[in-house]
Amino acid sequence: MHELTVTRHIAAPPEKVWQVMTERMGEWWCPAPWRAVIERMDRAPGGRSLVVMHGPDGEENRHPGFILAWDEGRRIAMTDAIVDDLQPSGPFMIGIWEIEPDGAGTRYTGRARHWTPEALAHHREMGFEPGWGAVADQLKALCEAP
To answer: Could you tell me where the DSSP H helices lie in the chain?
Structure first.
């Protein structure tokens, strides 16, 4: 499997982490100073998503996708291999965001699964670790705030 992962222990109950993950996506989804606008997020397998990332210098990156799993309270999985109305797209990855109880808190894991070792290497070179790490830290901070 061609997978990159990032994990964090979050000192908050899974219910709160899930609520922040799903209700406040725009606040943690991409590393600051970039910001994410969730234009569409169908909360069911087979649904579509559209996340637009806005950069500090006016950049805009549109990320359409397809919801593979929406397991309430536990996991979201999406891919860019299917967009719009079941249209194939050049696949890059399957993104999986999972939570599970971890002692008095929650274990968050973000996974990026790739079709090829070359795609994995490209994602790593793009800055997977610092980027997804920053996202995990932003989620953690939101969940642990009073």
So the answer is: 14-23, 25-28, 117-126, 128-144
Residue 67, phi then psi, degrees to nearest 5: -80, 120
Task: Report angle CA 24, 28, 33 to the nearest 5 degrees.
Answer: 130
128-144 and 14-23 are packed helices; what angle lies between their axes, rounded to 10 degrees? 120
Residue among 134, 141, 119 at smallest CA distance from 6? 134
Which pTM does this prediction carry? Answer: 0.93
Q: Domains in the chain and their CATH numbers?
A: 2-144 (3.30.530.20)
pLDDT of residue 79: 95
Query: Which one is predicted more confidently, 130 or 84?
Result: 130
SS3 37: strand
Strand order in the sheet with 2-10: 2-10, 105-114, 94-102, 75-79, 60-71, 48-54, 35-41
CA 64/CA 91 separation, integer angstroms: 12
CA distance 93 to 110: 12
Tokens at 2, concatenated: 């061609």
